[in-house]
Amino acid sequence: MTEADGAGRRLPPYMRHADASRPLPDDPGAQAYLDADDAPRLRPYQMTGGRTAPVDPTLALEAQVVADGAVIAAPHALRFEHREVVNLAHDPVSVAELGALLHLHLQVVRVLVADLAAAGHLRVLRPQRAAATDPAMIERVIRGLSAIA
Amino acid sequence: MGYPQSHEPAAPTPIKIVVAGGFGVGKTTTVGVISDTPPLTTEAAMTDVAAHVDRTGDVPDKTTTTVAIDFGTIRLDQGLKLYLFGTPGQDRFGFMWHDICVGALGALVIVDTRRLDDCYPAVDYFEQARIPFVIAVNLFHGRLAHSLEEVRWALAVNGDTPLTTFDARSRQSVRDALLTVCRHALQRATAAA
Questions:
Q1: Nearest by CB: B83 against A62, A108, A145
Q2: Which helix (H) or strand (E) holds A31?
Q3: 8 Å CB contact of B11 and A99
Q4: Integer Cα distance of A37 and B109 in angstroms
Q5: Pairing relation of β-strands B106-111 and B13-21?
Q6: Among B66, B67, B72, which residue's Cα sits nearest to residue B19?
Q7: How far from A78 is each of A58, A71, A75, A112, A115, CA to CA, in Å?
Q8: Domain residue spans in chain A?
Q9: What is the per-residue DSSP string for B118-168?
């Protein structure tokens, strides 16, 4: 895995907005673009202003995040990388899935999610720690797994 | 469980099972064969601990090292989603385990009997963290190189820890191995209640 594409293109954040070849996230081609191996890669912490500690360091990998209705209606007020997170979080999605879909380091996703949550644009649903030791919950998992053919 | 106040779609309750074991033991195969979607990979960055280990002299471009976490998801019912997280195979990424394992229902420790000691770090970790775990011997080519009792002896796990065999390439087999983890966790949870 490389951080730059074949042409060695490595775009600083202020260039990303100016890159006309890069489709906006609401473009139908955006997902394919994000999936492509030659998508320009940033150094991860350029997107977080150099911070590696999320505003909320306890944000679990499986925590679910969902975008607020108001920000879904007006995503263009956001910075590009925040907009990408919001666009993937119309329906609830986990922090880990965001990292995978955006090709971002987990810590970067945590910083972005924590920023958006602090601004009220995302709602974070923390996993209930007690669920993993709750017999009723474990029985429910067993029922669900047993149904897999 | 309450409903969100607004019109936002309700989020599923996430439940987590960790899939651990040595490098190349079949963790990704295990996750992939039962996941609803092809396994995803998220990258976690090196911390300062590893930064020290990984310092490679005067290579100015080398600012981060990444470790991949493979994971899959299974929608178990309308409101319940199971996450299967694979631990990074190498020992030196052990510092990440807490992040992956905290709050897990249980763990499946995959073992290749030809390289038994590869799973020691995982066994140590789950014993210490008191996370219910099951030892699952991946039957490469359908053969068991040692009996399960020999494996139990070699790993020095106590008699309560379930040992099983499975085939990481078979969906039903992986399902059954995960069910063994759940039943073990249930036993532990009911005993504690």
A1: A62
A2: helix A30-35
A3: no
A4: 32
A5: parallel
A6: B72
A7: 24, 8, 6, 12, 11
A8: 13-146
A9: GGHHHHHHHHHHT--EEEEEE-GGG--SS-HHHHHHHHT--TTS-EEEE-T
Gap between the Cα atoms of B173 and B169, Å rounded:
8
pLDDT digits (tens, 9 = 90+) for B147-169: 888 899 888 888 899 999 999 99
Residues 6+ apart with CB under 8 A from A29: A23
Return the CATH number of the domain spanning residue range B13-192. 3.40.50.300
- Of residues A43, A105, A140, nearest to B80 (C-beta): A140
CA dist., res. B145 & res. B76, Å (int) = 34
- Which residues, in sequence order, are bridge partners of residue A63? none
Q: Measure A5 CA to nearest chain B CA, in Å.
A: 15
Whether A133 and B192 lie within 8 Å, measured CB to CB: yes
CA dist B101 and B103 (Å) reads 6
Give the nearest chain A residue to B35 (CA atoms).
Answer: A148
Compare all CA atoms of chain A with the CA of B175 and give the residue at the minimum distance: A145
For residue B178, the distance in angstroms to the closest alpha carbon of chain A comes to 8
d(CA A86, CA A68): 8
- Which residue in chain B has the smallest CA separation from A63? B14
pLDDT in tens, B109-141: 999 888 888 888 889 999 999 999 999 999 976
Among A134, A89, A140, residue whose Cα is nearest residue A112: A89
Can you read off the two tokens belonging to residue A74? 């007006």
> How is residue B108 annotated by DSSP?
E
Q: Minimal Cα–Cα distance from B17 to chain A, Å? A: 9
Say yes or no for a CB contact (<8 Å) between A61 and B7: no
Distance from CA of B144 to the nearest CA of A (A): 25
Contact (Cβ atoms closer than 8 angstroms) between residue B107 and residue B18: yes
Residue ranges of domains in chain B: 13-192
Give the least confident one: A1-15, A39-53, A98-112, A130-144: A1-15
